[in-house]
Amino acid sequence: QVQLVESGGGLVQAGGSLRLSCAASGSFFRINVMGWYRQGSGEQRELVATINRGGSTNYADSVKGRFTISRDNAKNTVYLQMNSLKPEDTAVYYCKILYRKQAWSTVDYEYWGQGTQVTVSS
Q1: What is the DSSP annotation of 18-82?
Q2: Tens digits of residue pLDDT in 85-114
């Protein structure tokens, strides 16, 4: 089984910063892609940023230049540094991974974290 432990959410004023962390543990061979998604109240879940094992990143246009995703492969941990936060960034932020169960497998499995609330006050 896989476990994801998210941390770092909270309440911050507009213009402030937060850093989210998501640590993966359990039984798997390798994590290929790690990412953050968010879901505001009454809205659909949307991609924030992803990073693959080699460090290539992808960002939603709404967060480019403000958020930075990074990962530590040795710790199976992904981070999201969020700067210049805006009220519209308020959402539950979810960590998601795509992982390989065994070395010989060619199938990636998906797993989601429980989410961490980020609230940005104006």
Answers
A1: EEEEEEEEES-SEEEEEEEEEE-TTS--EEEEEEETT--EEE-TTTTTTEEEEEETTTTEEEEEE
A2: 999 999 999 999 999 999 999 999 999 999
